[in-house]
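FIELD: query
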Amino acid sequence: MAKFRVRVSTGEACGAGTWDKVSVSIVGTEGESPLIPLDHLGKEFTAGAEEDFKVTLPQDVGAVLLLRVHKEPPELHLPLGSLPRDAWFCRWFQLEWLPGAALRFPCYQWLDGAADLVLREGAAKVSWEDHHPVLQHQRQEELKARKELYSWKTYVEGWPRCLDQEAVKDLDLNIKYSATKNARFHFKAWTAFTEMKIKGFLDRTGLWRSLREMRRMFNFHRTPTAEYVFAHWQEDAFFASQFLNGLNPVLIRRCRSLPENFPVTDEMVAPALGPGTSLQAELEKGSLFLVDHGILSGVQTNVINGKRQFSAAPMTLLHQSSGSGPLLPIAIQLKQTPGPDNPIFLPSDDKWDWLLAKTWVRNAEFSVHEALTHLLHSHLLPEVFALATLRQLPHCHPLFKLLIPHIRYTLHINTLARKLLIAPGQVIDRSTGLGTRGFSELIKRSMARLNYSILCLPEDIRARGVEDIPGYYYRDDGMRIWGAIKSFVSEIVSIYYPSDTSVREDQELQAWVREIFSEGFLGRESSGVPSLLDTQEALVQYITMVIFTCSAKHAAVSAGQFDFCVWMPNLPPTMQLPPPTSKGQARPEGFIAALPPVNATCDIITALWMLSKEPGDRRPLGHYPDEYFTEDAPRRSMAAFQRQLVQISSAIRERNRSLPLPYAYLDPPLIENSVSI
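FIELD: result
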């Protein structure tokens, strides 16, 4: 006979406790015990509780390998029929047989209704590579079940593949929002749309009467950043600064030679560059920068309120004067093919001509940001990482333990987005100039040219030549966070992978990488995205990229959507008149006529307000309340990572005190661990 004490921890979330009966059996090297009920007088497994149960086994099972958990409803004979399914969120089990001798079995899963679960002991350094036949079989069965539960589908040809589920109600409980988060999300959505409906904005299909009338929309939940945008949106310096620290800070690149299809001359830019300067001299100094929205060229546009919308594919030339002068736009061309009907707009032009040209650039920024920087890079790719992790890495694998906090709720929000945002007839179709068909075409184009270096921030910064442009806070803060993540990942990798050979021989790791390559990047070798990893260094880079993309990158391009869009002329989602073909025609009334209609404006801004802030149940970057790792070494690495993030946050907040517009989107406490909104 063998005696154990079984300690069980139930989660604190709403609905985490259960009335169901829970039993366990212990599997060891010498056999398996029968199921033993965990039972006290009264109710067990209440939310937030840790409870002890004394267990006596009829025979010694040898060294413990696994813990089998069984949950089933109580046997109640009621005339009203069966009870509703009662889910239980278990944090962990612990087996103790002598004082100080214990094995912790991390769980952190929902068991819904009658359910069975097999748990491995948490010391991954010891157990995850164990080749005992019982453990090998358990890993295979776990992954088989996961692959049946989480399968791939093609949502749109040419897009990364995604979860094969149509609606949130069909999702497994372990990937759904918590009850608290779900309730807050839907309440926020209801209040937002109700407010716009009561004000009559969602039913007005006509134009705004004036910029003054738009201020009524601007009064909708103001923020300090939105106030700054409203005050400065017409200024050249603010226009340029948004390429560095706005919603889409990933396009600007140093210009070493002017594109042939952008025939800017010295005469055109002389008033902006000043006397005695030339374009060639500024190119050689490295003080010219280019933002090219050429990917938009020829994309089919949407129809809103029965009216065809318009798009442009602008090129914007910017100049950084020596010293600490501001970055400023000096030339804008709205189409990719030069000609007499495609003028180059200049700061020296009429005020309304120049403002309209800048507004067309801002509309292009909206389209590229929402379709590519946000949807593709910060939602669709994280979904690929999440699905491959769930399908290819068993619960005991150290990389599963490292990555699971960074895929929390991603499949829920993406499933919701496919239903409510990007499906035909939904928000993207109702309120953006490209609509779902245009978004789809943009994503296909981007996938054909996507490369690994774009996903790795240090390589991307070098490739764009923007290592030293001043005031680029996205770069500065992002590089600090990338470095902190990389340091943390390096320590974890060194614990579990002592050599390059150990990386190459991990078949589950290699299957995970292959699946991301084939399902996410569609097997396109020219992308440079690895289909296998054969060194510790390559593994560290890859995992760092995944965590950064799922946390900091998403925060940088998502959290400010409402801030920069609520004053719609700063980032219009569509344009109702074609791009100007000559100068001297723009007037205030023409400017208003080119902007989105009232209902489209309010529809998109309401959606962006909902999606900019987490509706509760947050877990900031580096916070790991679910203790998947039980050994001291990874716990020390986590603590070091958290200290680094505290230091980064302190530096960011100190810098922001002196900025007229603070940049806080990459302040670590404001970054969510995962894509969850």
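FIELD: remark
Residues 351-392 form the longest helix (42 residues).
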